[in-house]
Design a protein that fits this description.
- Helix 5 runs parallel beside helix 8, helix 5 packs across helix 9 and helix 6 packs antiparallel against helix 7.
- This protein is an all-alpha fold and 210 residues long.
- Helix content is 63%, strand content 0%.
- 33% of the residues are buried.
- The chain is globular and about 55 Å long.
Length: 210
């Protein structure tokens, strides 16, 4: 398989959209993704855009709904600025990604979680569906809250009270928004069978490389 063919497969069931092929509604979304997502990906160590300018991951899919994507971008930006610590955010995102078996999301946020200091052993435990050790108290509560919602569709009273004490009512609501955001992203990745890009011509990050 040629390099071009290999890259083309990164859209999964969707062809990757080239910048030159975008219409007037898609271009502002592309530019916003370039400003916001590309630097984050570079800092966290995952691939969001190829060298030829085509976006991969959920971003390629979002370009197909530019009006909705623009509104989602405003909402997710507010969620990101709502005061959750970096480790709490990454633990919630990994918990959602693991529940969905969303490979791209797992790979991207496994890397991002390492960057913000989440212990590798805790990351891998979350991805195996186990109880993680070594998390901050807030991150542990956020993980339990997320897991309870995803697996049981319920939150026991004791856990609810712990979450409110740790985050306040607004903070709990912010976590719920973050869960919803990454359930949407994970469903996009799973539906369109979006694969994990290779890094520097090698395999994606795996536990045995930690």
């Amino acid at each position: 398989m040629s390099t071009r063919d290999s890259l083309d497969r990164l859209g999964g069931r969707l062809p990757l959209l080239a910048p030159a092929d975008l219409d007037d509604e898609q271009r502002p979304v592309y530019e916003a993704l370039t400003r916001m997502v590309v630097p984050e990906a570079a800092e966290s160590g995952f691939t969001a855009r190829l060298d030829d300018g085509r976006f991969v991951g959920p971003f390629n899919a979002m370009l197909r709904i530019p009006k909705i994507a623009a509104a989602l971008g405003q909402w997710t930006g507010q969620v990101a600025r709502s005061g959750l610590t970096d480790d709490v955010r990454q633990v919630v995102i990994l918990t959602v990604g693991a529940f969905w078996s969303a490979d791209y999301e797992i790979d991207a946020h496994r890397s991002a979680a390492r960057v913000v200091g989440v212990p590798v052993a805790a990351i891998e435990a979350i991805l195996r569906g186990e109880v993680p050790d070594g998390l901050s108290e807030q991150a542990q509560i956020a993980h339990r809250l997320t897991s309870s919602l995803l697996t049981d569709h319920a939150v026991p009273q004791e856990l609810y009270l712990q979450a409110v004490r740790a985050f306040g009512e607004a903070g709990v609501m912010t976590i719920l928004c973050l869960i919803g955001q990454y359930q949407l992203i994970s469903s996009v990745l799973v539906c369109f069978e979006v694969p994990v890009p290779e890094r520097d011509g090698s395999r994606p990050y795996q536990e045995d490389q930690a």
